[in-house]
Automatic annotation (TrEMBL):
PROSITE patterns: ENDONUCLEASE_III_1 (PS00764), ENDONUCLEASE_III_2 (PS01155). It comes from Pseudoxanthomonas putridarboris. Adenine glycosylase active on G-A mispairs. MutY also corrects error-prone DNA synthesis past GO lesions which are due to the oxidatively damaged form of guanine: 7,8-dihydro-8-oxoguanine (8-oxo-dGTP). It comes from the Bacteria. Its EC number is 3.2.2.31. Its cofactor is [4Fe-4S] cluster. This is Adenine DNA glycosylase. Pfam families: HHH, HhH-GPD, NUDIX_4. GO terms for molecular function: purine-specific mismatch base pair DNA N-glycosylase activity. Keywords: 4Fe-4S, DNA damage, DNA repair, Glycosidase, Hydrolase, Iron, Iron-sulfur, Metal-binding.
Length: 354
DNA sequence: AAGTCGGGGGA
DNA sequence: TCCCCAGACTT
């Protein structure tokens, strides 16, 4: 069994790109630093198909960096309107002016100088240098994060600093294997690969040029990676459950309805409130509810809420004469519990010797 | 570390 | 509806 490797990744990706990559995007013809920069800014959090018409109109109105620097704010914003994230346009304009003021009207071919310009972060600076000059810099955008988490089997949400640090290290390791003169193609290849093959949903693993070495594919984790962003805190709900024992030591179980939480499973009689539980008890049971013993609180997490379930135990009770043992309400010997479908937290409670 | 910015597309 | 997208910046 082979582990994910950095030896072959770049070469295989480039071979795939030569045949199946995108070679006709507007900013590739011609591929000037200014046009690469503009495209990278427009493509931040924005899909290619959305960007293309904006890019065409923008470069037609502002063909060069000095043209952009000389334009009015209103003119620039008018050509950005509809793209969203308008701070990008303001930063772009400010950066153009800074380039005219400090870099002779061109984008600097220096990582730190580029990174210092407004709107250009670590990944965008690398993308510009690699694509415009074939300089050896890695990128780490959403596509690359998805590809690397899968290829190397990296768990944890990629937005976490610790995970991101790991991914940058892997991106660096891969880029070291790219042949000189192919950094621009490699950069584009990663994005094309992530956008067309290693997609978020239903990736085309059969066609993947690196599927032999992909950890996620080998371990069946393709759908699970990258780890999704943690959601908002779950709503909290409370409920009461009754652990009822008859004189024979049997437990009273109730079958859940065929839909909803724990559908058709056997659980303890349960209610949303203590008052509701008391009413049900008075209706169905012969015994003393006030004699109930509080058992340890059960906290159980569902996909859409967290349940705090308070179990109450009452011994030596019976069903009222009007209520019969039936399909939905049964006395069960402890030794027979294993034969019934019980939710995990309930099974744990009953197996605890409670 | 978390919040903010935005419109579009897919599940 | 929710989540994600060629992220960067501020608090």
């Amino acid at each position: 069994m082979k582990a994910a490797t950095t030896d072959t990744f770049a070469h295989r990706l480039l071979a795939w790109f030569d045949v199946s990559g995108r070679h006709d995007l507007p900013w590739q013809h011609p591929r000037t630093p200014y046009r690469v920069w503009l495209s990278e800014i427009m493509l931040q959090q924005t899909q290619v198909a959305t960007v293309i018409p904006y890019f065409q109109r923008f470069v037609e109105r502002f063909p060069t960096l000095p043209d952009l620097a000389a334009a009015s704010t209103d003119d620039v914003m008018a050509h950005w309107a509809g793209l969203g994230y308008y701070a990008r346009a303001r930063n772009l304009h400010a950066a153009a002016k800074a380039c005219v003021a400090h870099h002779g009207g061109e984008l600097p071919r220096d990582f730190d100088a580029l990174h210092a310009l407004p709107g250009i972060g670590r990944s965008t600076a690398g993308a510009i240098l690699a694509q415009a000059w074939d300089d050896r810099f890695p990128i780490l955008d959403g596509n690359v994060k998805r590809v690397l988490t899968r290829y190397h089997g990296i768990g944890g949400w990629p937005g976490l600093p610790a995970v991101e640090k790991q991914l940058w290290a892997l991106a660096h390791a891969h880029v070291e294997h790219v042949p000189a003169g192919r950094l621009a193609d490699y950069t584009q290849a990663q994005m094309d690969f992530g956008a067309t093959l290693c997609t978020r949903a239903r990736p085309a693993c059969v066609l993947c040029p690196v599927n032999e070495d992909c950890v996620a594919r080998r371990e069946g984790l393709t759908e699970a990676l990258p780890t999704p962003k943690p959601g908002k805190p779950l709503p909290e709900r409370e409920a009461v459950a009754l652990l009822l024992e008859n004189t024979a030591g049997e437990l009273l179980l109730q079958r859940r309805p065929p839909t909803g939480i724990w559908a058709s499973l056997w659980t303890l009689p349960q209610a949303d409130t203590d008052a509701g539980m008391r009413d049900w008890f008075a209706q169905e049971i012969a015994g003393d509810y006030d004699n109930a013993e509080e058992l340890p609180l059960i906290v159980h997490t569902f996909s859409h809420y967290r349940l705090h379930l308070q179990p109450l135990r009452v011994r030596k009770v019976a069903l009222r004469d009007t209520v019969r043992d039936n399909d939905d309400l049964r006395w069960v010997a402890r030794t027979d519990l294993a034969t019934l479908g019980l939710p995990a937290p309930i099974r744990k409670l009953l197996g605890n010797g409670s």
